[in-house]
Amino acid sequence: MNRGLPAVAIVGRPNVGKSTFFNRIIGERLAIVEDVPGVTRDRNFALTDWAGRKFYAIDTGGLDTDTEDPMAVAVRDQVLAAFKEADLIVFVVDGKVGPAPVDYRIAELLRKAELPVLLVVNKVDRLPLDLAHHEFWEMGLGEPLPVSSISGKGSGDILDAIVERLPPVPVEPANENDLYIAVIGKPNVGKSSFVNRLLNEDRMLVSNVPGTTRDSIDTPFLYHGKNLVFIDTAGLRRQAKIEPGLEYYSALRSERSIERADVCLLLIDSTEEPHVQDLKIAEKAWHAGRSLIIVANKWDLVEKETNSAKEYVEKMRGRAPTLRHVPVMFTSALTGQRVHNVLDLVLEVAEERNKRISTHEVTEVVRELATRQPPPHYRGMPVKFLYATQADTSPPTFVLFANYPKAIEEGYTRYIQNQMREHWPFQGTPIRLRLRGRREEK
Ligand code: GDP
Ligand code: GDP
Asked: What is the pLDDT of residue 34?
């Protein structure tokens, strides 16, 4: 099973210091912590790494647990959601207060989990003299590990323990020709409807490869002889069950899917203005080197005038210039309108993504561009391109060799990059440019 980089969920009752611990392990001193239970957090997950292993840390705090019995709903939901979405659970308790009745109830849930659980006793501020953590052996969750999240004492040992318990780095079955597709976007835009519409209609075409069992998380799908693999379809379908207040799991899922994708389908709701969250996800996919298609869904609900689609696209690109090279398709997962056309577009974009241009042609184009608009001189010397080559595909990566590579500024490389697209559009795909000096040639 491969859902992308592993995720570690930090659970526990309010006020034990989950958020402080979260900030500590993602390496930021200033926690957004207040002495009020249930303060809303800025963000709920962050990518971090320790001893060379990358993982997501999830702060499940920030729930409004104003009720008399904090276990009532919120904490329980939080723990159950973590079971579905995480690879490891860190259960934080309060060493100053000692075991609380709610802790026993959480522990009971956790003992049933099929996931590894780490019991962390926070607020043990006077290590090694403090022995408060030993009281928590009776939780029945193994060795309680002490930490003082405020000072950071003990956090290294806990990070070691976390990394030890992460699942092994998964090896993607090496089939170079498989095309990995991530369907990403905010909750409620129609991601699971879209995927269901695509995959259920052509049930017969779902290929029968090993691992396509009921509980496999991806869905392979044969289309025009190409094996498309839809990433984490299990997660998309599960999404409907995400409780209010836990929507950040949807963002986390998008991020984890982007890591594994060749092409991302960013679904947005065309009845609404593009949301800043949509644009953030788009940027993330683009900067991660993924190809991107925007699927403006729920088009059946939009009152159409002659130019509504065009205007919609222009408005969106005005807000996020990166999207200039990203195709947009208007669909309805409800009626099925253009849902399959998206697949045709995926194949086109994938072809562009893998396109290779000859060194001769690249050199020619770059020289021509430099002649038309030469780079500024460097200490009175003209800056020249010796030659240029496409070093890689997926995403297309070009290396430009110049006499003074360090003198070439970002504005100029952007000019080259944009002009290159006039020759080779690389629809929906980011292009990377690197500059090298003549001595660095291989
Ligand atoms: P959460 O509700 O579980 O996320 O808890 P917070 O991170 O918001 O912390 C609750 C309170 O505990 C805050 O006042 C923190 O300053 C305090 N706190 C967190 N970690 C420690 C610690 O290691 N030692 C001490 N003494 N206080 C802590
Ligand atoms: P997800 O959270 O992004 O997976 O969104 P869902 O697929 O669960 O859809 C959210 C809601 O929008 C559901 O009520 C769907 O029936 C509805 N919906 C999804 N796609 C469309 C569409 O193209 N047109 C209309 N009218 N409704 C849609």
From this structure: 41
